[in-house]
Amino acid sequence: QVQLVESGGGLVEAGGSLRLSCAASGLTFSSYAMGWFRQAPGKEREFVAAIGWSGANTGAADSVKGRFTISRDNAKNTVYLKMNSLKPEDTAVYYCAARMGRATSDRGGYDYWGQGTQVTVSS
Fold first, then answer.
1. Which of 1, 7, 20, 52 is deepest in the core (most CB within 10 A)?
2. What kind and span of H or E run contains 77?
3. What values do phi and psi take at 97, rounded to 5?
4. Sign, CA torsion 39/104/67/71
């Protein structure tokens, strides 16, 4: 049974930083591309960042480029999202997701999802 468990969310002031983690089990982690998505109240789930199976290829949404960094540790079956210079508009539930094949920004392309972790940025 595949499980993705996010952690590291919380309440932070604008300009602050957080690092999210997503621990995977039940799959061959190093064979999967991983993505981070977020969903704010009343809005659709949107792409944040993605990383290929080896970690060599990454991509991020324009809204977070230069502030958020995705990385992975295949030895620990974990993907990370380092978030710097946080803004109130980054407030959302953050989800990690896994898919075979190349990383993509298309949320429909992911096979497995975690339950999410709340990130709240106060102004």
1. 20
2. none
3. -145, 155
4. positive
Amino acid (1-letter code) at residue 41: P
* CB-facing half-sphere around the CA of 93: CA atoms within 13 A: 12
DSSP 8-state code for residue 67: T
pLDDT in tens, 37-94: 999 999 999 999 999 999 999 999 999 999 999 999 999 999 999 999 999 999 999 9
Average pLDDT, the chain: 97
Contacts of 82 (CB under 8 A, 6+ apart): 17, 18, 19, 68, 69, 70, 71
Determine phi and psi for 108, rounding to 5 degrees.
-70, -10
User: For a pLDDT cut of 70, what percent of the chain falls above it?
Assistant: 100
Q: Are 99 and 109 in contact (CB under 8 A)?
A: yes
